Amino acid sequence: MTPGENEYVVTPGFEEILRVHRLDSLPALFAYQDGEPLDKPGLADWRRRFRVRLPVNGQEQVLYLKRFDRPPSSAHRELRRAGGEVRSLAGLEWTWAKRLAGDGIPCVRPVAFGEELQGRREIRSAILLASVPGASLEKWTRDGLFEPRLRARDLLQPLAALIARLHRCGYVHRDLYLSHIFFDPQADGDRFHLIDLQRVFKPRRMRRWIVKDLAALNASTPPSPVTGSDRLRWLKHYVGSRKLEHGAKRLALRVIGKTQTIMRHECRRQRRLHGKSRPTANDS
After folding, report:
1. Closest Cα partner for 156 from 87, 231, 209?
2. pLDDT of residue 63
3. How does pLDDT run across 30-48, given as a tens digit for each residue?
4. What backbone torsions phi and psi does residue 27 show, to the nearest 5 degrees?
5. Which CA distances in Å does 103 have to 98, 144, 169, 191?
6. Measured between alpha carbons, how far is 252 from 246 in angstroms, rounded to an integer?
7. Which of 190, 200, 206 is nearest to 158 (CA)?
8. N or C: which end of the chain has fewer CB within 10 A?
9. Which residues are CB-neighbours of 253 under 8 A, at least 6 positions away?
C-alpha cells in the first residue's frame, strides 16, 4: 500500500498485537513511552528511536519504533530519490523495505507506518519494524563470536552474494556497515538480513554508490578476524570471478581510497562528539 496523506498502515498479521498494546494509530505511536530509548550522540532531536518489547502468548515480540517529529526541510532531500509517492521520512523505510523484500533481498520487516501531512509538508511520521534474527556482524566481530562455531571466512561467499544481489537489483544501501547486517547461523532460510534502510535508493549511475557501499563495509570490518587476504576473496566472490581482472582491480583501488576517506571522516566525527580519534564500526 502506498503511503498517503494522514494514514496508518499495518502489515497483515500484526493488527491484533498492535490493537492489544494500543499501538494501532499514529498518535498512539507518538504517545508511547514504555520503549527503551536508543538515542546516540549526534542524533537530531526531531528523530527518536526505541526498542519495544511486547508480551505475546507468553513470549516476547521485539519491535523497533522510529519517530520523526517536524523534521527540517533539509531532511527531505531523500524523498525525491524514492519517487513521488513517498512523502515522509518514515515512509522511506516502509517503501524500501517493501521493495527489497519484493525483489527477494532479506531485510527488516515493516510492521506499521503512519504519517501526518499538511499539504506537501510532513508534520510527523513513525514506523514500527520487527526485529531480525541473530546479531549484527559488528557484534560478531567485536565480541569474538566466530570461533569455534564457525570461521569468519565461511561467511565471505554468502555475504558477497547478498550484496552483489542488492546491487544487481539496482539498489544501494548507503549505510552498509557491519552494524546494519544481521547474521543468524541457526536460520533455516536466509541467514543474513539488512536493516536501517532509510537511505536506500536506486541511482541512475551505480558505480559511485557501489564504491561507497563496499568502502563502508570495508571500513567497518576490523583486521581481525577478517584479514587482507579475506577481503580480496570477498571481492572475488562479489564480482563472481576467481581472478581480479582490470575492471575489478580498478574497483578495488577506488574502494580502498574511499575507505580511507571514510576512516578520516569518522575520526573527525568522533573528535567532535566525544573528543576521541579512534574510528568506530558504525557511522550511521
Report:
1. 231
2. 97
3. 999 999 999 877 788 999 9
4. -60, -35
5. 9, 33, 7, 17
6. 10
7. 190
8. N
9. none
Taken in order 132, 61, 201, 175, is the CA torsion positive or negative?
Answer: negative
Q: Which residues pair with 201 in a beta bridge?
A: 172
The answer to which of 3-7, 62-66, 155-159, 239-243 has the lowest mean pLDDT is 3-7
Q: What is the DSSP pairing of strand 181-183 with strand 121-130?
A: unpaired
Amino acid identity of 21? H
Can you tell me which residue has the cell 523534521?
71
Domains of the chain, start order: 7-130 (3.30.200.20), 135-274 (1.10.510.10)
Q: What is the pLDDT of residue 278?
A: 44
Measured at the CA of 133, the angle between CA 52 and CA 144, to 5 degrees, comes to 110
Longest dimension (CA), the chain: 59
Burial (0-12, 13-18, 19+ Cβ within 10 Å), 54: middle
Residue 249 has pLDDT above 70, yes or no: yes
SS3 of 61, please?
Answer: strand
Instruction: Compute the distance between CA of residue 262 and CA of residue 267 in angstroms, rounded to an integer.
Output: 9
Cα within 13 Å of Cα(53), Cβ side: 5
Q: What is the pTM of this model?
A: 0.89
